[in-house]
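Note to self: user wants both folds in one dump. Writing first protein now.
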Amino acid sequence: MRPLAAGLSYPRLLVALAVATLVPLAVVAWAQRRAAPPAALWGALLVQAVVLLNVVAHVATAVLLTRGYTPGLATAVVVNLPFSLYLLRRAERERWLGRGALVALAPAALAVHGPLLLALLMLAATAAR
């Protein structure tokens, strides 16, 4: 990650963060429309599953790598963790989607939080050159 981080200027990082914020907002806005298709709801729940995975990443970074506080840790644990658990449990309890669709959120969240996020950062770093 260091070579990637070294090639990523602050303005390009801000662009990458803006894209990583605006795309999920668009997905959630799509899900909020009347008569939104089930794919929109699944996409919104995927956004929350990615947020939950990000909580795990923040905690793991703090515990395993820095052995102390890292930026975003408090927000991840105090805000994102409880809301993610609430929303995903409610979706399961109220059967917003089928069981298979809910189970599919886990591997999809890994793909979004891993390879897709890395690709976004690499694209931003490449554009900076």
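First done. Writing the second protein, which came from a different request thread.
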Amino acid sequence: MNIFKQLDSLLRGQRTTPDSLGGGANGLSARTFGAASLALGAAYGAFVGLFSVIGRPEPNWHQLLASIIKIPLLFLLTLFVTLPSLYVFSALMGCRLSFHAVLRLLVATIAVNLALAASLGPILGFFTLSTTSYPFMVVLNVLLLATAGIVALGFLMRTLRRLDESSITPESPAPADMNTGINTSPEQPRPEPSSRAVFAIWIILYGLVGAQMGWILRPFIGNPDLAFQWFRPRTGNFFASLLHHFGRLFDLMM
């Protein structure tokens, strides 16, 4: 319960105020929000795998279990693959965040992402109960995860802005002119934050790696026309498959 209390305070913005962050994401616990991510990812995975139990003549409980395991694994493996590049980019561009601060910030972002995905799970469950179209379920899952990801990235950029604000220390007042009492020193420019630019580039890499990571870990939903497999052969790619399912979905609608 303590983990979810902290998650609630994160969602409400209480842990991402400039004072709470302290210039280094000090208010964000990687261990706490990592545990929350595992639980929330498993919850969304249960809704994803529900189609393999309801959408076929014989329930496939193995696929349900696989989906519960694979959804949190998808996010954590994507973070593992992309975190080193983010840290090197940020160090080269003079970002003030340490490695641990970057890790805490990203784990908190994943927790927000999966909290949003889990909150959309009942919607996914509703459509699972009301359709037998496998292409529709694939496209719907992609749209729901993309929606959760976009909102989570907004959270990340807002937190970075607050980190920039908390890391800027006020300048000491310049000496005034002895005769007029007017400050004659030129105004010191505020430093330009580079962290948001670095993270904006990394977001693109994270999305590309995450999409292909999902393709490697498939199946998640379970095609009712195929036998259960923990993993499928590494042929094709995520984007070609998504276009294929879009095409099948529109063919069914015509």
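Dump finished. Worth passing along: The first helix runs from residue 2 to 11.
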